[in-house]
Amino acid sequence: MKIFLDTANLESIKKFNDMGLVDGITTNPTLLSKEKGDPEEIMGEIVRTVKGPISLEVISTDFEGMMAEGRRLSKYGKNVVVKIPMTAEGLKAVSALKLEQIRTNVTLIFSANQALLAAKAGASYVSPFIGRLDDIGEIGMDIVRDIVTIFKNYDFDCEVLVASVRHPLHVIDAAKLGAHVVTLPPDVLAKMIAHPLTDIGLARFLDDWKKVSSSSSAPRLTVPR
Ligand code: G3P
After folding, report:
1. C-alpha 204 to ligand 1 mean position (Å)
2. Span 7-33, pLDDT tens digits
3. Is the pTM for the entire model greater than 0.85?
4. Domain ranges of the chain
5. pLDDT tens column, 177-215
6. Nearest CA to 53 among 22, 84, 12?
7. What's the gap in Å between 224 CA and the centre of ligand 1?
8. Which residues of 44-62 are buried (b: 16+ CB within 10 A; e: fewer)?
9. What is the topology classification, in CATH, of domain 2-195?
């Protein structure tokens, strides 16, 4: 399963990218509004920092506006995927952008039917927002299960990108269902790395080592001749 980071924060992107964990990035207007600095420059820097797909979202809601923005955003780099909202105008833009070899990620998906239509229109990714469904008392992961099944049944050339992820259990559930991608806020990825037993175990190893090696903090290796 691919892991994308759902952020426009360059510090977090660089930190996790250096660990080899980041297959791509998703941004949106809300995430960009949280960062200091010119959004255009931030988007350019993200595209240069991470080699994988970078979703940059349009602000327009009409077909012509989305086309113009999609073409402009795609110029940031070959790895750009244009993020388009799940609307009738959006589907039209997805279909037209595909003809221009511009990849799209259809966002704000809240049902399997929406995902099916986005895939038929030619999207490269669909983004079901599972946390927001959980928020209103529905089970977000249920639509991921349905979408994965539908895409497999018809061999759609479209990846299921699980978005609005709130905690590490969402990641396990998405992985068990065979979703292609999860996009994670940096704090969720940090939580996946940490485990209290790892910390306790490491502290014990270091304490025990101190008992046998008071003069050195690092193991002294004897190389066999
Ligand atoms: O990728 C979509 C994501 O940014 C939305 O997350 O937590 O605002 O529902 P959230």
Report:
1. 39
2. 999 999 999 999 999 999 999 999 999
3. yes
4. 2-195
5. 999 999 999 999 999 999 999 999 999 999 999 999 865
6. 22
7. 55
8. ebbbeebeebbbbbbebee
9. TIM Barrel (3.20.20)
